[in-house]
């Protein structure tokens, strides 16, 4: 009897084909969307939309169009570099080579796994470094947004790297230990640990981590403080304090946000925001942020993230046990036989491969997440209009759009795919409709 004919398409080859097709589809979709955005913005560059003609100058509209096109074009370069890097790590054997080199140098075990992840992160960071430098000191500088010095940029980079190592490596060590010691349900324990850490981070970030990068001073404007406190009292919201952050050290962009969790919640205003908006406009922006809390958007997003992460850990738990998951993505799995000297676990390899490929497939879900986010923004706008003057919120939004050089004429398809916030035209018309209802 002749030996059985091997299948023409093995699970490993099938994964390679699926990954290649998904990557190509993702890249082509992003290229198509970017080209639409640049053409649409350029075609509307020479005319301010009628809704804003009396409040936005043509010069500001030109700047927003040019900034949007420049960012989108730069994004295409980043996309090309990222795609080449991803292929280099996976199908072209980069991760396999790095893993084999570290196995030869360190043998198996926890230290080799942590070294693999650390080396991968370091190499990836170095690859991304030129683009980060260009974005800050060329692109943002050209349009007048960058306020950073090379020294401050380097200090942020070093502090971020040190913080990532001090916090990230112990967390990874725990997850890798669970993967190797907690049995087939390790992914559930790892997910519970990850959720607990993120909740803890929300508590300690405002007081211990954020001050490493920025200075936070109590809000000193008594008139604005009284106005903000009255708004928060009306809305039934309590915070630990009102703070001003020195955002102008790094950028001319303006913002305001809530940070913290539970009793540690803080209201933070960028100093650039307070410089550009009057008291009524600041109050309206804060009312919008309070609307997110009133509608429980923060909790909904957090629960959604935790749910998606649970699915991700469960999927990783299954994939990490499949040999074709490694070979189909260009990696030779380690010999992993319990009790056999010289064998080494595949856990760090599984983590890295999963983190590399999951964005390729999740990119097709981003329009759904963006749609949900835009719905939340409309709801927060509606709440703000109930608590403050609609004219103040509209004025604040237009000032922020102008000062941040955000285009008023984005491509509608691009908006539906990417935008987490509705474009200005839709937000203003929504507020006007609320005023007439």
UniProtKB/TrEMBL annotation:
CAAX prenyl protease 1 N-terminal domain location: 37-215
Keyword Kinase carried by entry: no
Keywords: Hydrolase, Membrane, Metal-binding, Metalloprotease, Protease, Transmembrane, Transmembrane helix, Zinc
Transmembrane segment boundaries: 12-33, 74-95, 115-136, 157-180, 186-208, 302-320, 348-370
Record text on cofactor binding: Binds 1 zinc ion per subunit.
Domain Peptidase M48 stretches: 218-433
Co-factor requirement: Zn(2+)
InterPro entries hit by this protein: CAXX_Prtase_1, Peptidase_M48, Peptidase_M48_N
Family: Belongs to the peptidase M48 family.
Record-given protein name: M48 family metallopeptidase
């Amino acid at each position: 009897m002749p030996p059985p004919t091997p299948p023409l398409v093995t699970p490993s080859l099938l994964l390679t084909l699926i990954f290649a097709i998904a990557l190509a589809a993702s890249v082509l979709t992003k290229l198509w969307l970017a080209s639409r955005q640049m053409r649409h913005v350029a075609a509307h560059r020479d005319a301010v939309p009628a809704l804003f003609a009396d409040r936005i100058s043509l010069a500001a509209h030109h700047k927003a169009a040019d900034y949007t096109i420049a960012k989108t074009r730069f994004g295409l370069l980043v996309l090309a570099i990222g795609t080449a890097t991803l292929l280099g790590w996976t199908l072209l054997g980069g991760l396999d080579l790095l893993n084999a080199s570290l196995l030869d140098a360190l043998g198996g075990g926890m230290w080799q796994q942590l070294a693999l992840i650390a080396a991968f992160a370091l190499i990836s960071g170095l690859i991304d470094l030129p683009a980060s430098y260009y974005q800050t000191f060329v692109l943002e500088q050209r349009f007048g947004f960058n306020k950073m010095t090379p020294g401050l940029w380097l200090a942020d980079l070093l502090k971020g790297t040190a913080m990532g190592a001090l916090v990230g490596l112990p967390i990874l060590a725990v997850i890798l230990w669970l993967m190797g010691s907690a049995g087939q349900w390790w992914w559930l324990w790892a997910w519970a640990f990850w959720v607990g850490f993120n909740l803890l981070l929300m508590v300690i970030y405002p007081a211990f981590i954020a001050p490493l990068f920025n200075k936070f001073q109590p809000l000193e404007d008594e008139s604005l403080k009284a106005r903000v406190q009255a708004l928060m009292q009306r809305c039934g919201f309590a915070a630990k304090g009102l703070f001003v952050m020195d955002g102008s050290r790094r950028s001319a962009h303006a913002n305001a946000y809530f940070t913290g969790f539970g009793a540690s919640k803080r209201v933070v205003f960028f100093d650039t925001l307070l410089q550009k908006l009057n008291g009524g406009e600041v109050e309206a922006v804060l009312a919008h942020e309070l609307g997110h809390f009133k509608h429980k958007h923060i909790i909904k997003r957090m629960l959604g993230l935790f749910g998606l992460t649970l699915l991700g850990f469960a999927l990783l738990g299954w994939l990490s046990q499949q040999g074709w998951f490694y070979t189909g993505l260009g990696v030779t799995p380690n010999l992993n036989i319990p009790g056999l000297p010289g064998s080494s676990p595949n856990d760090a390899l599984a983590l890295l491969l999963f983190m590399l490929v999951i964005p390729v497939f999740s990119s097709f879900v981003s329009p759904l997440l963006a749609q949900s986010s835009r719905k939340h923004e409309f709801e927060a706008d509606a709440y703000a209009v109930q608590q403050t003057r609609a004219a103040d919120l509209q004025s604040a939004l237009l000032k922020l759009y102008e000062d941040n050089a955000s285009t008023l004429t984005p491509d509608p398809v691009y908006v539906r795919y990417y935008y987490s916030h509705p474009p200005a035209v839709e937000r203003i018309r929504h507020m006007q409709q609320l005023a007439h209802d």
